[in-house]
Design goal:
Blueprint lengths: L1 H20 L14 E4 L11 E4 L3 E4 L8 E5 L4 E11 L2 E5 L3 E2 L2 E2 L4 E9 L2 E6 L2 E3 L12 E3 L12 E7 L5 E5 L4 E2 L13
Antiparallel strand pairs: 1-5, 2-5, 2-15, 3-4, 5-13, 6-9, 6-12, 7-8, 9-10, 10-11, 13-14
Length: 194
């Protein structure tokens, strides 16, 4: 009797161990409320400059959220320091249709397109990690069929946000900062600072 109980307990434990090892669906990239946040992002043409000059008044918000309170307004010709950048996006899901060895992708693998890297290249998430690749979106050798983007749920904070610091030390966030000069080495004039 004891032997059958031990054997039964062993069978239950073995079944639980095997179930925990079963192949599960691959997890997507880390998100917060369905939003992937790429941190330290820069979209300056030709690289990032640290100091930017406002070409018109710009409101800075307490957090990267359009509903956050305005903490300061940057004046025309005021210099600010770019402290941080975030690109907030919904990952685009795709399925591999052609196997690749670099990175190792099998037909049927689920992957996600994350932030752009420039010139059509993008960060790729698959198999639980970031993957390096050598194709651009839409290239003939791109081995992925992308899903159509799903509509974003109301209230999601998406887009490019930059944290700026004024000379007096106050900081705030600006969305899609198009009202600045000197953001990158190919933007602005000769008197831009780096």
């Amino acid at each position: 009797m004891v032997r059958s109980y031990v054997g039964g307990a062993f069978a239950v434990v073995a079944a639980l161990v095997l179930a925990s090892c079963a192949h599960s669906a691959p997890a997507g990239p880390p998100t917060e409320n369905e939003v992937y946040i790429a941190r330290g992002v820069c979209f300056g043409e030709g690289g990032c400059n640290r100091y930017w000059r406002a070409s018109k008044p710009v409101d800075m918000r307490a957090q990267p959220d359009p509903a956050a309170p305005v903490v300061a307004t940057i004046a025309v010709d005021e210099w600010v320091e770019a402290v941080d950048g975030q690109l907030r996006l919904r990952p685009l899901r795709g399925v591999v249709h052609t196997a690749k060895t670099s990175p190792p992708l099998a037909v049927g693998d689920v992957v996600y397109m994350l932030e752009p890297q420039g010139e059509g290249f993008y960060t790729l998430w698959g198999n639980g990690k970031m993957l390096e690749h050598d194709w651009a979106e839409g290239d003939a050798n791109e081995p992925i069929t992308w899903d159509a983007p799903a509509p974003a749920a109301p209230g999601l904070t998406l887009g490019w946000w930059v944290q700026l610091k004024r000379a007096d030390g106050r900081t705030g966030w600006v969305k899609e900062p198009s009202s600045f000069e000197c953001m990158g080495s190919l933007q602005g004039s000769a008197d831009c600072r780096d």
